[in-house]
Design a protein that fits this description.
The chain is an alpha+beta fold. It has helices at residues 17-29, 31-45, 55-78, 85-100, 105-129, 134-186, 192-200, 225-238, 265-279, 292-312, 325-331, 335-350, 354-369, 374-381, 385-399, 406-422; strands spanning 209-217, 241-246, 253-259, 281-290, 318-320. Strands 2-3-1-4-5 form a five-stranded mixed beta sheet, with helices on both faces. Strand 2 (241-246) and strand 3 form a beta hairpin.
Length: 436
C-alpha cells in the first residue's frame, strides 16, 4: 500500500458537515436568547444605547441584531466565509442609518464585536451539549475562522455605508460654507450681522480682520489644476482660511479669506511669495480688514486689479493690491497721451531694428521687476551683470536718461509699465506695441 504520508494538521482535516449544521440548528433554536443577550450587553456597554436612550433607537438595534445573527447562521450553514453582495448592501444600509442617527462609528463597531463574542459563547455551549466528541473541537475551530472572516466583512460594509453619509454631510457643509463666502465676496447680503452669524458657524468671526489672497495663473488657458496644487501647498502655512473658486470672471481665480491672528500677515505674504515662485502662479494680496462690508470692498478692489497684475507682471509674482493702484491710474490715462510719452521717452530705442531693440527693452523689463538691482536683472536675463551695465549705458546714450538719476529712472519705470500694459515686453508680443 502506498504511504499515506504524515497525518494532516487538525485544521486541514475535512470537517463533517453534519456536525457543523447540527451546531447551527442548535443556535437557531436559541435565536431569541442570543438576541436578548447581545442586546443586554450592548445596552450595558455602549453609551448611546444605555437606559434613557430613545426607545425607537433601541428597537432598531434589536431588529438589526436579529437580522445580523440570522445572516451569520445562514452563512455558517452554507459554509461561506464572506458576505454576499446582498448582505453587503444590507450591512452598508445599517451603517448609513446609524450615521444619520448620530451614533459614533466606534460605538457601532463595538456593538458588532459584542454580538460576535456573545454568539460565539452560545456556539461553544451548543457544541458541548451535542456530545460530538473530538469532532466538536474541529467544527468549532472551523466555525471560529469563518466567524472572524464574516465579521471583518460586516465591519467593512458597515464602515463603508457610514462613511458615505459622513462624506455627503461634509460635502453639504462645504457647499454651504462656500455659499457663505461667495455671498460675502459678492456683496450678496443686506445685513452685516446676518453675515457675521452665518460665517461664525464655520469658525470665522468676520468682525475680526481678514486678509485676502487671490491666486490665478499667468495665462488663463493654463491647467486649472495648477491653481489647486498651489492652494493646497499654501493652506498649511497660513492658518484658518476659507477657499472660494471664482470662475465667472475675466481672470478666473481662487480666493483665500484668511483670518489674521494665528500667523502674521507678513508671514502670509511670504508664504504666498514662496508658493507663487514654486508653482508659477500670480497673486494679489489685500491686507486684513474687519467687517463684512469692508472685506467685500477689499475683494472688489483686489479682483479688479487682478487682470492688471497678470498684464504687468509677466512672471509669477505677488502684488499688494495697494501697490497696483499706480498701474490702474496709468491705465486710466488717454491712449494718445501714453503713446506720446512712450515716443518721447523710449522713441530712439523703439525705432531700432528688432535685434538691437529687444535686448534693451528686455533689460528695462528685468530692472523693473528686479527693483533696479543689476544682479537680479542679470539672473532673470541669464547674462552677466556687466552686460546689464553695458545696456544701461546704451539706454542712456540713446535716450539721454540715466537709470541712476531718480527723475530719469522714474520716466524709464513709467515707460516700462506702459509697455507692459500695452502688450508686454517679450519679443513675441512686441510686434503689437504701438510706437506712436
Amino acid at each position: 500500500m502506498p504511504d499515506p504520508g504524515p497525518p494532516r494538521p487538525e485544521r486541514e482535516r475535512e470537517i463533517p458537515r453534519h456536525v457543523a449544521i447540527a451546531v447551527v440548528e442548535g443556535l437557531e433554536e436559541q435565536l431569541d436568547a442570543i438576541v436578548d443577550s447581545v442586546l443586554s450587553q450592548v445596552r450595558r456597554d455602549v453609551p448611546e444605547y444605555r437606559a434613557g436612550a430613545d426607545p425607537t433607537l433601541v428597537d432598531g438595534v434589536e431588529q438589526t441584531i436579529r437580522r445580523a445573527v440570522q445572516m451569520v447562521l445562514r452563512l455558517w450553514r452554507e459554509g461561506k466565509r464572506n458576505l454576499t453582495t446582498g448582505d453587503r448592501v444590507v450591512m452598508g444600509m445599517i451603517g448609513s442609518q446609524r450615521a444619520e442617527q448620530g451614533i459614533p462609528l466606534e460605538s457601532l463597531l463595538t456593538s458588532v464585536r459584542i454580538a460576535r463574542s456573545v454568539g460565539w459563547s452560545h456556539a461553544v455551549q451548543v457544541a458541548e451539549r451535542g456530545e460530538f466528541g473530538a469532532e466538536a473541537i474541529a467544527v468549532l475551530g472551523d466555525l471560529a475562522g469563518v466567524l472572524f472572516d464574516i465579521i471583518d466583512d460586516v465591519e467593512d460594509a458597515i464602515t463603508a455605508g457610514y462613511d458615505r453619509i459622513q462624506e455627503n454631510r461634509l460635502k453639504a457643509r462645504e457647499r454651504t460654507r462656500s455659499q457663505v463666502f461667495e455671498d460675502l465676496l459678492g456683496g450678496s447680503f443686506a445685513d452685516d450681522d446676518d453675515m457675521v452669524i452665518r460665517a461664525r458657524t464655520f469658525g470665522f468671526d468676520l468682525r475680526r480682520p481678514h486678509g485676502l489672497v487671490l491666486l490665478t495663473t499667468i495665462r488663463s488657458e493654463q491647467d486649472r489644476s495648477l491653481l489647486r496644487t498651489a492652494v493646497a501647498a499654501l493652506l498649511p502655512s497660513i492658518g484658518n482660511a476659507a477657499e472660494v473658486v471664482v470662475s465667472a470672471d475675466v481672470a478666473p481665480h481662487i480666493v483665500l479669506v484668511v483670518l489674521s491672528g494665528s500667523v502674521s500677515w507678513d508671514e502670509v505674504v511670504e508664504a504666498t511669495q514662496r508658493v507663487a515662485r514654486q508653482h508659477r502662479v500670480t497673486a494679489v494680496v489685500s491686507a486684513p480688514v474687519g467687517g463684512p462690508r469692508a472685506i467685500h470692498a477689499a475683494y472688489r478692489r483686489a479682483s479688479e486689479l487682478l487682470p492688471l497684475a497678470i498684464t504687468v507682471f509677466r512672471r509669477p509674482h505677488v502684488a499688494e493690491a495697494g501697490d497696483l493702484v499706480v498701474y490702474q491710474i496709468l491705465r486710466g490715462s488717454r491712449a494718445e497721451d501714453r503713446a506720446d510719452f512712450l515716443e518721447r521717452t523710449l522713441g530712439p530705442i523703439l525705432h531700432l531694428p528688432e535685434m538691437q531693440r529687444a535686448p534693451l527693452l528686455d533689460t528695462l523689463d528685468a530692472l523693473h521687476e528686479g527693483s533696479g538691482h543689476t544682479e537680479t536683472a542679470a539672473a532673470m536675463l541669464g547674462v552677466h551683470t556687466n552686460t546689464v551695465r553695458y545696456r544701461i549705458g546704451r539706454i542712456h546714450h540713446l535716450t539721454g536718461l540715466r537709470y541712476d538719476h531718480p527723475p530719469d529712472r522714474f520716466k524709464l519705470e513709467v515707460a516700462t509699465i506702459l509697455m507692459r500694459m500695452q502688450g508686454g515686453m517679450t519679443a513675441a508680443d512686441r510686434g503689437s506695441i504701438p510706437l506712436s
